[in-house]
Design goal:
By secondary structure, the chain is of the alpha/beta class. The chain has two domains: about 190 residues, Rossmann fold (3-Layer(aba) Sandwich); about 160 residues, 3-Layer(aba) Sandwich (Rossmann fold), CATH 3.40.50. Helix content is about 50%, strand content about 15%. The protein is built from 18 helices and twelve strands. α9 packs across α16 and α16 packs across α17. The mean pLDDT is about 100. The chain binds NADPH dihydro-nicotinamide-adenine-dinucleotide phosphate and (2Z)-2-iminopentanedioic acid. The site of NADPH dihydro-nicotinamide-adenine-dinucleotide phosphate (NDP) has 25 residues, from α10. (2Z)-2-iminopentanedioic acid binds next to β3, α6 and α16.
């Protein structure tokens, strides 16, 4: 980082929270890329925009105690980081995973601010969650945890204040339990969560939105290079919400998806993933991805994290942060991979992302490529406010338009700042400018 102002801000972040490695990583990636913006806009430094953007407006941590099926008291830690509300109510998911720490939630909240700004919709950035591990828990344990979590969260959220949604470990079931508890406590039926069930205010196409949106974004990347999904081989990691619907849309657009994975290993199906089987295992039975090979002849399961060694044209990491490192990037490049787009948040390590850039792999960062989920959440908020529900086709068409616009904003910003095709710079610059303009209008304080 050559810019003195950005250096100063970054040193302060590291000095304040030296142990928050994921947060520091996310901040570094943004600050390194926005140097040309800062050089053109001295008013941003004068107004302290960057040092305000790296400090959350509010951090809430709380105890979540609940009783397991054996009658034992369990205690988890809950978080909500309300990062930036310059352009709308805080918006972002809730993650339930044992790896959740304040650093993880802060990195996700920070990324969310830029992502949400890029959608062009009026949503600020936030993120929350808990170190609760949903794996192996009964339905009743999940319900009791979600209810206890909402007992505290309810006082901090609201349709005009903060609207959480799902993320890793939080899908329609968990949102339902949380919504029910909110309604009991507040005696109010408003759109305080997104990703709701269709019977109580959810939006059609929200389930599919992140994975579909990712493919609409990749379709723009391909078109930009005069290509299409047709006939391409795609490697997808993860086997959750994002991975499944990315696989579905890529297949519909003419590609062959050959892998899915989880934290234990990956499956390879040379004939293209059979989605009916994958959905049954993951969405109905809540099983493990290795069960796929018992049901689909010709497919192979490999234990461990080797998914990036599979030959492909397009790689879509859709599991979790830092799941794709420098060695993985080398093996993708050696096998001829030309496009990488992030369905997950920050799945590529900085070394991997740098390598993609230097080796001419067209790289779509998560805050642009996976913005379809939160964009459709904003469409759910819109429908809730109007007491209306749009058809699947209407929502899907809006989602596609939003993803096309995000690509356009990012690619144009990249050119404007003299780095054609650098979507990391483009996404960070376009997102930052929108937030900064609003912050300038509001004056100092948040
Ligand atoms: P799910 O809980 O539905 O699925 C998560 C998937 O990732 C599972 O296959 C899980 O495997 C795997 N995974 C999780 N943690 C790890 C880990 N530490 N190592 C290896 N694999 C892991 O979550 P989503 O599909 O919703 O989320 C996936 C990613 O997409 C996340 O990064 C999330 O932040 C991001 N995202 C999600 C959006 C959404 O709308 N849902 C929107 C935008 C981004 P296992 O079962 O073994 O844990
Ligand atoms: O990372 C993300 O953008 C999400 N988990 C979705 C957030 C949302 O509010 O829909």
């Amino acid at each position: 980082m050559n810019n003195a102002y950005l250096n100063r801000v970054f040193e302060k972040v590291k000095q304040r929270d030296p142990n928050e490695k994921e947060f520091i990583q996310a901040v570094q990636e943004v600050l390194e890329s926005i140097e040309p913006v800062i050089e053109q806009r001295p008013d941003f430094e004068k107004a302290g925009i960057v040092e305000r953007m790296v400090e959350p407006e509010r951090i809430i941590t709380f105890r979540v105690s609940w009783v397991d099926d054996q009658g034992n008291v369990q205690v988890n830690r809950g978080f909500r980081v309300q990062f930036n509300s310059a352009i709308g109510p805080y918006k972002g998911g809730l993650r339930l995973h044992p790896s959740v720490t304040l650093s993880v939630i802060k990195f996700l909240g920070f990324e969310q601010c830029f992502k949400n700004a890029l959608t062009g919709l009026p949503i600020g950035g936030g993120k929350g969650g808990s170190d609760f591990d949903p794996k192996g828990k009964s339905n009743n344990e999940i319900m009791r945890f979600c209810q206890s979590f909402m007992i505290e969260l309810q006082r901090h959220i609201g349709q005009f204040t903060d609207v959480p949604a799902g993320d890793i470990g939080v899908g329609a079931r968990e949102i339902g339990f949380m919504y029910g508890q909110y309604k009991r406590l507040q005696n109010e039926f408003t759109g305080i969560l997104t990703g709701k069930g269709l019977s109580y205010g959810g939006s059609l196409a929200r389930t599919e939105a992140t994975g579909y949106g990712l493919c609409y974004f990749v379709d723009e990347m391909l078109k930009h290079k005069g290509e299409s999904f047709n006939g391409k081989t795609v490697v997808v990691s993860g086997s959750g919400n994002v991975a499944i619907y990315a696989t579905e849309k890529a297949t519909q657009l003419g590609a062959k998806v050959v892998t899915l994975s989880d934290s234990n290993g990956y499956i390879y199906d040379p004939n293209g993933i059979n989605l009916e089987v994958a959905k049954d295992i993951k969405e109905v039975k809540r099983g493990r991805i290795k069960e796929y090979v018992e049901r689909v002849p010709g497919s192979v399961y490999t234990e461990g994290r080797g998914v990036w060694s599979v030959k492909c044209d397009i790689a879509l990491p859709c599991a979790t942060q830092n799941e794709l490192n420098e060695d993985d990037a080398k093996s993708l490049i050696a096998n001829g991979c030309k496009y990488v787009a992030e369905g997950a948040n920050m799945p590529s390590t900085p070394e991997a992302a740098d390598l993609f850039k230097s080796m001419g792999v067209f790289f779509g960062p998560g805050k642009a490529a996976n913005a379809g989920g939160v964009a459709t959440s904003a469409l759910e908020m819109c429908q809730n406010s109007m007491r209306l529900a749009w058809t699947f086709e209407e929502v899907d068409a809006k989602l596609k338009g939003i993803m096309q616009n995000i690509f356009k904003s990012a690619i144009e910003a990249a050119s404007e700042y003299g780095s054609a095709d650098d979507l990391v710079l483009g996404a960070n610059a376009a997102g930052m400018q929108r937030i900064a303009e609003a912050m300038l209008c509001h004056g100092v304080a948040y």
